[in-house]
Each structure stands twice: as structure tokens, then as C-alpha cells.
């Protein structure tokens, strides 16, 4: 049986009022993320990170998570480089490094337009060590009118249920060893700085 417009409007109002009730509850946190923040998660892969946050908050009302379905033949290149699953396959590491650097630079340039002047933050979790330290995230952010607020260790065990994925190629659903990682927190550079 099809719903008429009035029934659909009532469902939307009901959903909105439930959502508002969730917002009125006590603030809940997981590491440096809070249920009172508005969070945009870009390149979320299998959405396990956003699900971990939503479970900790008791709701996902404050989040928007995005992903690109690699199963549909698309590609996404985020802050993780890979060399493929098969050691006999030629490595794409240097090409991927260049593409990832350009992706991060474009992301910083565009994401800063979404920030609230004084309180908005951009967080990028990134592997440490060579070749990732050559990405020079802080310098890229500064060139885009951002300043580093803080950098903290990222540990996937802090986010129950989170599973990292390769996001590319024939092994895109495989996990990989993260090693040491850092979450860099950036904010808009103030006019007084």
C-alpha cells in the first residue's frame, strides 16, 4: 500500500522530533570526538569508524559519513598508500603517493570552507614514518590557511568495531597493519595570528 504525502510528512516530523530528543541528552565522548560536535567523515570505507562513534554516542544524528564504493569499479585514494596484495605485482606506491598528496591538498582547501570560524576542526589520521612523513601535512594545511592545534596518537583499538581497509584494487576489502599513526587536528588560522 502506497503512503500519501500527509503520512510521509508525519513520518519525517516523527523522525525529526526523535532526532531532537537525542540531541538534548548528555554529551558522550570517545577520545577527542563528542556527541555535541557536528562531524563529517570523508572516505569512510565500510563505515566501521562512523559506526563506532555512533555506538559510543548512542546515535549518529551529528554525523555525515561518505564513502566511494570500490566494488562498483571506482577508486578512492586517501591517506594510506599500498603496494598491492601480490608481491609479484608491480608496485603502485610512488604513483599512489603523488595522487594521495594531491587528494589531501584538495581536501584541505575545500574542507576549510565548511568550518565554523572559531570552533571547527579538520582531523586527519595519518600513518607515521617513511614515506608518509614526506606528505608534510602541517605545511599543506598552513598553505591553506589552517593551523595545527594538536597531534595525538591514533589507535584503532580506541574505536571498537573499526576495521581499516585498503580501499583500492583487487584486495580492497583486506585490512593491513596500521603501525604508528597520528591524528592531526587543524583549525582556521585566525586573522590575529
Strand order of the largest sheet: 5-7-6
CATH architecture: 3-Layer(aba) Sandwich
- Major sheet details: 3 strands, antiparallel
Low-confidence stretches: 1-23, 73-91
**SS-based class:** alpha+beta
> What is the first-to-last residue Cα distance?
61 Å
What would your notes on this structure say?
By secondary structure, the chain is α+β, with helices and mostly antiparallel strands. The protein has a single domain, classed as Rossmann fold (3-Layer(aba) Sandwich). The protein is 28% helix and 17% strand. It has helices at residues 5-23, 48-57, 93-111, 137-143; strands spanning 29-30, 33-34, 39-41, 63-65, 122-127, 146-154, 181-188. A three-stranded antiparallel β-sheet has the order 5-7-6, covered by helices on one side. Strands 1-2 form a two-stranded antiparallel sheet. The chain has a two-stranded parallel sheet with strand order 3-4. Strand 1 (29-30) and strand 2 (33-34) form a beta hairpin. Mean pLDDT is 75; it is low at 1-23 and 73-91.
Question: In terms of topology, how is this protein built?
Answer:
Blueprint: H1 5-23, E1 29-30, E2 33-34, E3 39-41, H2 48-57, E4 63-65, H3 93-111, E5 122-127, H4 137-143, E6 146-154, E7 181-188
Parallel strand pairs: 3-4
Antiparallel strand pairs: 1-2, 5-7, 6-7
Keywords:
28% helix; three-stranded antiparallel β-sheet; single chain; Rossmann fold; disordered N terminus; globular; two-stranded antiparallel sheet; 193 residues; alpha+beta
Amino acid at each position: 500500500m502506497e503512503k500519501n504525502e500527509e503520512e510521509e510528512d508525519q513520518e519525517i516530523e516523527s523522525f525529526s522530533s526523535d532526532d531532537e530528543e537525542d540531541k538534548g541528552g548528555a554529551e558522550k565522548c570517545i577520545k577527542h570526538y563528542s556527541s555535541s560536535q557536528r562531524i563529517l567523515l570523508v572516505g569512510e570505507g565500510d563505515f566501521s569508524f562512523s559506526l563506532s562513534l555512533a555506538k559510543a554516542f548512542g546515535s549518529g544524528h551529528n554525523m555525515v559519513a561518505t564513502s566511494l564504493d570500490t566494488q562498483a569499479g571506482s577508486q578512492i585514494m586517501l591517506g594510506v598508500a599500498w603496494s598491492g596484495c601480490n608481491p609479484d605485482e608491480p608496485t603502485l606506491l610512488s604513483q599512489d603517493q603523488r595522487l594521495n598528496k594531491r587528494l589531501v591538498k584538495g581536501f584541505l582547501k575545500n574542507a576549510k570552507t565548511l568550518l565554523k570560524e572559531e570552533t571547527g576542526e579538520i582531523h586527519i589520521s595519518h600513518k607515521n614514518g617513511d614515506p608518509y612523513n614526506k606528505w608534510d601535512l602541517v605545511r599543506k594545511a598552513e598553505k591553506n590557511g589552517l593551523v595545527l592545534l594538536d597531534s595525538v596518537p591514533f589507535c584503532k583499538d580506541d574505536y571498537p568495531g573499526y576495521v581499516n581497509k585498503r580501499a583500492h584494487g583487487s584486495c580492497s576489502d583486506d585490512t593491513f597493519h596500521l603501525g604508528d599513526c597520528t591524528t592531526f587536528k587543524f583549525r582556521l588560522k585566525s586573522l590575529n595570528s
